[in-house]
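Protein 1 of 2
SEQ + STRUCT:
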Amino acid sequence: PDKEKKEKLADKFLESTELTTLLKNMDVDKWRMLTALTALSGMRIGEAIALHSSDIDFHNKAIQVTKTYDRLNNIVTSSIREIYMQPELERLCRQIKAYTLRQKLLYGFETELFMCDDAGKHLNYYSYNKYLSEKTLKLFSKKVTTHFMRHTHVALMAENGVSLDAISRRLGHENSKITKDIYFHVTKKMKEQDNAQFQKVNIL
């Protein structure tokens, strides 16, 4: 049963090496940046798509998550929390800002969105999910959905020693079973790796 549980968990997130491989092989800039944004911030895909440029506060190194884009009804609903921008997330956000500015100049549109399509409108969730599924099926022989990036964020933070409570707050107080399972799976794996190192030590 424990082995089965590990296999099921492995189907819910990407290892850091898998994420790096995925990003390197993504040939569509906006999809690569959106994948990195959700993996590095833990935002839901609807929250990332709904972001406005004014939500990115470089001075205070914070992303204000105030809304979620509902792709089915084409409406924006409330979702409130603040995400601290660690250095690599801040660098990515600056790249996205520059990319959106270039798109605005190239296609001649105005938009308040942080990321957008070539017409300045919300990014198409279905196009992104299709691209992501096809790319990961080719790379890893498994279909990855947009929600994987939120789970991947949990794994990445756990690997870096961030507590479960801190991760849950960053996700918006989502202390779900999957969040806990992934966290404990990663920390257990790290402990096993530590023990394997200790086993090789011969001091006396």
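Protein 2 of 2
SEQ + STRUCT:
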Amino acid sequence: ILQLTVKGVSGNTLIQILSGKLVVRELVVDADGKHSIEELPAGEYEIRSIFDANKNGKWDTGNYLENRQPETVKSMEGKAKIRANWDTEIELDLSE
């Protein structure tokens, strides 16, 4: 089980748990709080957050003609190590 405490949320944010380039889990948060992600296989995972400005549930590229920047992506430093039969607690601060 991964216990994820998210702080500094400003608006709709996608939290992705990645194994290599594969997105294993994804959750949408719109406020600070605790989230439990269960049944993750043991291993190392990258955690990244996407600030979803238009609330469509995915990362959007920018558009030069519309003068729109791509949505901001922030990756957690290091990797989350999940061990079998252990609860892992991670605090994710999204404030800039």
